[in-house]
Design brief:
Length: about 180
């Protein structure tokens, strides 16, 4: 496709269609990770003792730092804006607006919240030596971590779901 002949991209448009499909799938996978975590892991760990809670979060936070998670988490940061750019043709249509909004919501509400809010909490917790801490210290650490981490996790979960809905809507609009 030549830039001057630009028209909204559909799934049958070769490389641009593949990029759009990848953006939608990876955004939905990211939303699924955050949603499943919010409705299963968070409530499950809320029921355990402080030492088990903190140890489990340390373990999860270390385990999630893997290529598969990074691909799913990072790809929408690039693919949603790129897909929106591919959709742009004056005047901007609904698919462009939906993808642009999906990208903005994802970058700010998922990526931004994770980097600015959740990751610093994870890094702080990772530095704590749970084996040498007493019960009162463990309780204090859990209070410092759990409430803020869960609040920001709700924000990024909601943002990822909204971003996924917008991206699916854009793709369906272009069918």
């Amino acid at each position: 496709m030549h830039i001057s002949d630009k028209h909204p991209v559909s799934l049958t448009d070769g490389f641009p269609g593949i990029i759009l499909l990848a953006a939608v799938i990876l955004t939905c996978l990211s939303a699924g990770i955050f949603y499943a975590y919010a409705v299963s892991v968070v409530p499950g760990l809320a029921r355990v003792k402080d030492s088990a809670y903190l140890a489990a979060y340390q373990s999860i936070n270390r385990a999630i730092l893997n290529p598969w998670f990074f691909i799913v988490f990072m790809a929408p940061v690039f693919l949603l804006p790129f897909s929106a750019w591919q959709q742009y043709s004056p005047p901007a249509g609904g698919a462009w607006w939906a993808l642009a909004a999906a990208g903005a919501v994802y970058i700010i509400g998922v990526f931004g919240v994770t980097v600015v809010c959740n990751v610093p909490l994870n890094e702080w917790l990772d530095k704590q030596d749970l084996a040498t801490a007493g019960e009162s210290t463990l309780k204090e650490w859990r209070l410092r971590f759990e409430g803020p981490w869960n609040r920001w996790n709700v924000v990024r979960t909601a943002a990822s779901v909204v971003s996924a809905i917008l991206s699916v809507w854009a793709m369906l609009k272009l069918k």
